[in-house]
Amino acid sequence: MAVDAEGAGATAGAAIRISGLGRSFGAGDARIAAVRDLSLEIASGAVVALCGPSGSGKSTLLHLLAGIERPDCGQLVVDGVDLARAGRRALLDHRRRVGLVFQRFHLLPALSVLDNVLVPVVPLRVPFDKVARARQLLDAVGLAGRESATPAQLSGGQQQRVAIARALIGDPTLIVADEPTGSLDSATGVEILGLLRRVGRERSATMVVATHDRDVAESCDYVISMRDGRLTSDGAALPA
Ligand SMILES: Nc1ncnc2c1ncn2[C@@H]1O[C@H](COP(=O)(O)OP(=O)(O)OP(=O)(O)O)[C@@H](O)[C@H]1O
C-alpha cells in the first residue's frame, strides 16, 4: 500500500517505508500481536488518518513510528533510517525529529504555557533562540498573550494548542498525533485538526493521526484503517 503526498511542500520519495512490521506484547498464551505483518509507504508531506476499533494497534503503530517502541520484526524506514535496526544514537536523533500530540495533552501543570512549549528543547543544543521560537509558535496557534498562564487556566482546546506548539518546537519532519481531538467537543476537534494540518503543512511535515472521529479522518488527505494489528483499507484518498 502506498500513500502519496497531496498539495504543496512535498518532497520526492517516501518519507516512511514499512514492510512486514510486527510488534507483540506479553509471552506464551498471553502474547498479543498488536501490529502484524504490516506494509505501508507514506510519502513525505502526506497527512494520514489512522482509523480502527479500540485495540486494533493504532497507538502501537504510532509509537513504532515515533521510535518509542521497537519493532520485533520487519522494516520501518523513516527518512532513510531503519528504526528496527538503528542504534541508540540514531534512534534518539529520530525521536528529536518527531512531534508528538496526545489525547490528554500531557502538559505539565506547574509550568507556564511558555515553559511547557520549551520542554522538549530544554536539554538540547539547537541552532535557534528557543524562547523566541516558542513565542512565535504560541502566536501561530493563537495563544499570543497567554505565555504566563498555567494549563489549568486554559480551555481544553487551548491546552491542545499549547501541545501543538510544543510538538513543533523541535522542527519535526514527522508529527504523530494519537487521538488529538478525543478530549474535545467535535467543533473544537475539527478546528484543532485544521490548525495541526496548517502548521504541519507550513513545515512540509508528514503527519499520522490516529482518530475515532469521522470528521477528523475526512479532513486528512488519506484514511487507512487497522483491525487486529493489520491494515484493512488501501489508503485511497477520500472524495473531497
Ligand atoms: N505495553 C503493552 N503491553 C501489553 N499489551 C499492550 C501494550 N500496548 C498495547 N498492547 C495491546 O496491544 C493491542 C493494541 O493496542 P493499541 O493501544 O495499539 O490499540 P489502539 O487501536 O490504539 O486502541 P485505542 O483506540 O483504544 O487506543 C491491544 O490488545 C493492547 O491491549
TrEMBL record:
<dbReference type="InterPro" id="IPR015854">
    <property type="entry name" value="ABC_transpr_LolD-like"/>
</dbReference>
<dbReference type="GO" id="GO:0016887">
    <property type="term" value="F:ATP hydrolysis activity"/>
</dbReference>
<dbReference type="InterPro" id="IPR017911">
    <property type="entry name" value="MacB-like_ATP-bd"/>
</dbReference>
<keyword id="KW-0067">ATP-binding</keyword>
<dbReference type="GO" id="GO:0005524">
    <property type="term" value="F:ATP binding"/>
</dbReference>
<protein>
    <submittedName>
        <fullName>Putative ABC transport system ATP-binding protein</fullName>
    </submittedName>
</protein>
<dbReference type="InterPro" id="IPR003593">
    <property type="entry name" value="AAA+_ATPase"/>
</dbReference>
<feature type="domain" description="ABC transporter">
    <location>
        <begin position="16"/>
        <end position="240"/>
    </location>
</feature>
<keyword id="KW-0813">Transport</keyword>
<dbReference type="Pfam" id="PF00005">
    <property type="entry name" value="ABC_tran"/>
</dbReference>
<dbReference type="GO" id="GO:0005886">
    <property type="term" value="C:plasma membrane"/>
</dbReference>
<dbReference type="InterPro" id="IPR027417">
    <property type="entry name" value="P-loop_NTPase"/>
</dbReference>
<dbReference type="GO" id="GO:0022857">
    <property type="term" value="F:transmembrane transporter activity"/>
</dbReference>
<dbReference type="InterPro" id="IPR017871">
    <property type="entry name" value="ABC_transporter-like_CS"/>
</dbReference>
<keyword id="KW-0547">Nucleotide-binding</keyword>
<dbReference type="InterPro" id="IPR003439">
    <property type="entry name" value="ABC_transporter-like_ATP-bd"/>
</dbReference>
